[in-house]
Amino acid sequence: MRWTRLRRLALLWAWGLAQTHAAHAVDAPGAPGERATWTNGDKQGLATAVTRESKLWLTLGDGVLTEVYYPTVDKANTRLLELVVADGQGLLERETADTEHRVSAPDPRALLFEQTNTSRTDRYRIRKLVITDPARPVVLLRVRFEPLSAGPLKLFVFLDPALGNSGLGDGAWTEEGALVSRDGGVAAALLASSGFVSTNSGYLGRSDGLAELKRGEPLPTHARARSGNVAQMAELALTGAGGPAELVLALGFGRSVPSALQAARDSLARPFDETLRAYAEGWHEYLGGLRLARGRHADAFARAAMVLKAHEDKTYPGAMIASLTIPWGHEADASRGGVGGYHLVWSRDLYHVATAFMAMGDRPAAERALRYLFEVQQKKDGSFPQNTWIDGRPFWPSLQLDEVAYPLILAHELGRTDGVTYRRHVRPAAEFILRKGPATPQERWEEEPGYSPSTIAAEIAGLVAAAEIAEANADPDAARRYRSTADAWAGQVDAWTVTKTGPHSPDPYFMRLSRQGRPDSGARLEINNGGGSFDEREIVDAGFLELVRLGIRPAADPVIVGSLGVVDRLIRVETPFGPGFYRYNHDGYGEKADGGGYDGAGVGRLWPLLTGERGEYELAAGRDASRYLDALVAFANDALLLPEQVWDRPQGPSAALRFGRGTGSATPLAWSSAQLIRLALSMEEGRVLSTPSTVRRRYGSTTAP
After folding, report:
1. CB neighbours of 91 closer than 8 A, spacing ≥ 6?
2. Of the four, 506, 623, 674, 695, which is 20 to 30 A from 281 by CA?
3. Within a domain: residue 360?
4. What is the pLDDT of residue 455?
């Protein structure tokens, strides 16, 4: 008995020692790996199923799969997934760096993209069709690998996880034939229909297998990377004796490794074509219920509509983020979990998106947006945060009064006059504007305090809308106060924001803003993005056009017309595709002159959405706005995705920065897509659809003070 016990203890000790040695033998060296970053904001595609069962979104860039968001639209979990080709004799090529990329949309009525990457050495071509499974949180990639010259080639898949919105803290290993990774409550599992020949889990740039393959050595077999900036590789089993090979990759997500594995297996078990058909039919059905634009821009319009739908969360309905991007993400630190990028909710952007949904006839989407604004984002004092995570937690801490006013306009346009909405949401927001306005801690470009024409326009329209809702709720005193304040501010906006002594014109013109409401004081304005310090009268933007769009001023107002002349001289650029506009002169928010990403200083570039705003003004003025719509559509990339910014000059520091084409800031931007939709449908109607009728009726006959 005693001998048996001792023998058992000895065996257990020997087994434990062997396990310890094995663990030391298979653990990857080089923790925590190289610095973690995200990928560039210039995306060439995105995908999500229309179903709520698949809480997963993806982006495409540089020819590969980039960030994947799960289980909510604000939580990134990968940096990239790409294919690597080697020949065992020193050739090592990555899709991102060593191929020419092309993206196409095989179905213009589905959010569906095919990437084609051709080796610059003419050795091979890779075609990938990328979708999400409508039934589960899985990315599916159908891959066709086509050798173009003689000689054996090996194909590898390279995955850089960034679970839980962070590039550090991930653990990675091989389990049940899959590459799996986990960080906290998020796990991922990668499987291939062909199976893997060998696998490796290591640390990025230290033990990820790329260096060995470059030297012609076999893929190392580190079984586990415990915690850090991990990277995973696997050699794919190919069939076809050197000819074309086809396979499907499934990248599943879950709260645990077993759930992620099961999701990936279930997706692989179903024929890809069946899943593809279900994915595409979901988008066909959605578009079939919308009012779509006709004519030569029909495909661009449909793509914009799908982009807006794709930016809505599936756990928090109505939470529509600004963009599935991290601007200049390839230079942004991914070691922290709190990087929000543009996958946050701004109430201003959400208002513009909701107006586009209303124009298309998707009223339920606009109603979800308003419910989200009131029930999730709004603070107890009636205000709204500068922006939030989708669960309503504030991200940036400032206050922008246009973001408090726009939900009031939206509530009126949606007919939300019920007592609960008025007491809990409309009245508190309107009272907040009365207490804090008209000057704002930040205007719509999120940088400066003061008296801003665009913010004051939103406040006036918001108060007029709130007054009508107050009357519907038998609160005439509040209605009177809201209207009298709106009228007073409408009469004072020139005195606060129009200079008569500015250097750009002998006639009065609107400034970007006046910090103290004294536009001829000559006060200095420090542009808070590295743009420099200037006399306030030097800086102009086109934000005053909100006075026209919202129905407060007629398009023919002399100061409006005179200010447009200043805008066209200072911040308008004729690109190869049509007119583009800077946010304002001396803007610093954009790429540096050498093409480096914005890091607190840079050079502002052209914003396509401003071309759309100008188009709405031209329509309000009774003129043809076609040139502006044409330019806005032309600013889109090959996948018809509209950017936040486009390059502003004929020469660029790199081939990626081309005149009139998107920069590394954010593509697609939901606000840009909303602007295209609004302008196109407004032109069909012959009127600006987003002008609130109640405001237009009140100020429609107003002439300039």
Report:
1. 85, 121, 123
2. 674
3. yes
4. 98
